[in-house]
Amino acid sequence: MKRPQVRDDLALMEGYHSPQVEVSVRLNTNESPVPPPAAWSDALHAEMSQISWNRYPDRNATALRAGLAELYEVDPSMVFAANGSNEVLQCLLLAYGGPGRSAGLFEPTYALHSHIAKVTGTAVVEGERAPDYSLDPAEVDRVLSQEPNVVFLCSPNNPTGMVEDPDAVRSIVERVGNYGGLVVVDEAYGQFAPWSAVGLVDDDQPVAVSRTFSKTWSMAAARLGYMVAPTWVVNALESVVLPYHLDAAKQLAGTLALRFEPEMRDRVAQLVEQRDIVAAGLGELPVATWDSGANFVLFRPLNMTGDDVWEQLLARDVLVRNCASWPRLSGCLRVTIGTPEENRAFLGALGEILKP
Fold it and tell me: How confident is the model over 27-38, as pLDDT tens digits?
C-alpha cells in the first residue's frame, strides 16, 4: 500500500508537547495548583443532570457569552468562546491568515502562535526581542514594515513572564490599523498582570484579546478559552469555526465558574503573593531572573547548565519546564507558581543543587 503524504510544509513540523511526568511537585505547565471552589463542583454536578444529551448544544453559547460580556462590560456580540484559547487562535488564523498572508510575532514568545500559523498555511514574520526580552523598537519597525495581516503580542509573555508596555501596545495597534491588519494580544495570564488590553477593544480598533479558563479559573481540564474582540472579528471567527464545536458540559462549566469571580480573584492574589516569594527566593541564589506578571518565573542558573539543574530537580521529585535548548533561551528554566508547600520544596531543592 502506498500511503498518502501530508502537505510538504507540514512534513518536518513537530507538534507542541509538554512532558507529563509523575512527580510530587509538578511546576512545569502553568496550571493552577488548587482546584475550583467545591461549591462550583457541586453546582456543576447538579446542573449536568439537566443536560439533554440527545440534543446538540447551544451553537451560539448564549449563556456563556452573556456572562463573559457582563464580566468585561461589553456586548455579547464581542465575545467568542472555543475549546481553549488555542482553538480561538486557530479560528482567527483561519479567518485572517492562510496562504498568501502572514503573521508577525516577536521571539521568544508562545510557541503556538507560530505553530498554528504554519499549520494554517500562514507565513510567519519573526521579530527578535531585545536581550532583556522586551520589545525592540527597531524590530517592531522591521516587522510592521512588512505589513503582516495578524500581529501577535503576548502579555504576560510566555515563557518570559514579562508584561508588554501599554504605550507600545497602543502604538502597535494604531500602526497596524493604518495598513489594515489586526493585533491579537494573548492574555492567557492576563489576570495576574497589572494591566489588560481588553480596555482597548471596540469596533473602531483593530485589536482582539484572547484569554482562557485554564489558569486563573483553575479549569485546565475543561479546555475552555475565549476572545474579546470587535464584532466584525467575532463574526469572522464564527464563519470558520466548526458547528456545535463547544459542547454543553463545557459551556455549563464556564457559565457556572463566572458566579465565583471573587474566589477567582482571591486565588490570583494568593498566587501573585507566592510569585513574589519565589522571585525573592531565586534572588538569593546564583541565577538570573526576569520580572514576571504571570504565574511563573523564568530563570537561568549561573554556575550550572540548565539541563543539569532540571535533571537534578527531577531527581528530587520536582518538575519544572526545561527551556534550556529553546532558541533564544539558552540555559533557562521556567517554574510555575504552586502551593506554598510546593514552592518551598522547589526553592529548597534548587538551593541544594546550586549551593557552592
Answer: 999 999 999 999
Q: What is the mean pLDDT of the chain?
A: 95
Q: What is the CATH number of domain 40-260?
A: 3.40.640.10
Sequence spans of domains, the chain = 8-36+262-354, 40-260
Mind listing the pLDDT tens digit for each residue in 302-313?
999 999 999 999
Q: What topology is assigned to 8-36+262-354 in CATH? A: Aspartate Aminotransferase, domain 1 (3.90.1150)
What is the per-residue pLDDT across 87-108, written as a single tens digit (0 to 9) for each? 999 999 999 999 999 999 999 9
* Residue count of the chain: 356
**CA 103 – CA 150 distance, rounded (Å):** 5
Taking the C-alpha atoms of residue 352 and residue 356, their distance in angstroms, rounded to an integer, is: 9
Res 313: pLDDT: 98
Helix (H, G, I), strand (E, B), or coil: what is residue 79?
strand
Task: Return all residues near 230 (Cβ < 8 A) that are at least 6 apart.
Answer: 78, 201, 202, 203, 204, 205, 206, 207, 208
